[in-house]
Amino acid sequence: MGATLRVYKRRIRSVSATKKITRAMEMIAASRVVKAQRQVAASTPYASELTRAVTAVATGSNTQHPLTTEAAKPVRAALLLITSDRGLAGAYSSNVIKAAEQLTERLKAEGKEVDAYIVGRKGVSYYGFRERKVVESWTGFTDSPTYADAKMIAASLIEAVQKDTTDGGVDELHIVYTEFISMMTQNALDDRLLPLSLKGAPEDGAEEQSKGEILPLFDFEPSAEDVLDALLPRYVESRIYNALLQAAASKHAATRRAMKSATDNADELIKSLSRLANAARQAEITQEISEIVGGSAALADATAGSD
Which candidate, 111, 162, 177, 270, has a CA 20 to 30 Å from the CA of 87? Predict the structure, then answer.
């Protein structure tokens, strides 16, 4: 066997081994994304209704709660960036990091300092490579997050919101993650969690008098402020948990798509290498036949000369 043919066969074996790996990873991602998709569908209604409940309490009372009241002049914002712990997911992490960079620039243009909170090793590596300060980071659970993970993250962020800005606190809380829309579509987006935006809030919790004064229609026990104190941590936890699940489903879908593309490319490369190997083998056979024919002719000429 010629050297060229051996090279092609070695490359075919190598690509075939890679194809087996990418195919297995595609199947694993496909099974995981189904589970993650079910979790997203189960958690989204709870997060949405809890947001409505908190909004109703805020609009149905005259309480000025620190977590629902806009700062007169916000000076610092917290940004929670949700990335992946692992790669092999195409442009998944780079897209959400790009969205975080755009939000950071926008907040800085508004005169606000930005405190970064990172989920996932990809985001931590990105900030670490650029020597940017990260207030707190969490890794190791992005593929399969739990509510306990969301609660741990929310505790740090709520503590930062409740602090005074002169003591390291923040006026706003933003979250950047990848929204799962379908197996083929996932969008990186940013959302402000706190202070809770009351624009466009339903007015079923209040009515206007002729003078334009808003009177609450609800009575709160023990008080509206105590109700908000109890609901708002649950609100932040549920929103973060839903974002973690959306990000996990998006990552698995991106991995499945990337691994399918890699498997298809491996198939095409194997076909191309097989054609080249066949051509090399045919060239070797042709050369051998030519050598045999040439040797036979030379032998015949030598025999005729001796006669």
Answer: 270
- Determine whether 281 is exposed, middle or buried from the number of CB atoms within 10 Å of its CB (0-12, 13-18, 19+): middle
Give 138's strand partners.
Answer: 119
Cα–Cα distance, 137 to 85 (Å, whole number): 12
- Contact of 179 with 172, CB cutoff 8 Å: no
Q: Give dist(CA 94, CA 42) in Å, integer.
A: 28
Per-residue confidence band for 215, with pLDDT thresholds at 50, 70 and 90: very low
The residues facing 177 across adjacent strands are 189
Report residue 40 CA to chain centroid gap. 14
Residue 266: Cβ within 10 Å count: 20
Greatest Cα pair distance, the chain, in angstroms, is 133
Q: Give the DSSP H/E element, type plus range, for residue 133.
A: none
Question: CA of 145: how far to CAs of 111, 124, 225, 265, in Å?
Answer: 34, 17, 31, 32
Q: Cα–Cα–Cα angle for 172, 81, 247, nearest 5°?
A: 120
- What is the Cα–Cα distance from 38 to 254, expressed in whole angstroms? 17
**Total-model pTM:** 0.80
What tens digit of pLDDT does each residue of 69-125 get? 777 788 899 999 999 998 888 889 999 999 999 999 999 999 999 999 999 999 999
List beta partners, residue 215.
Answer: 207
Neighbours of 157 (CB within 10 A): 24
Instruction: For residue 218, give the H/E element and its range.
Output: none
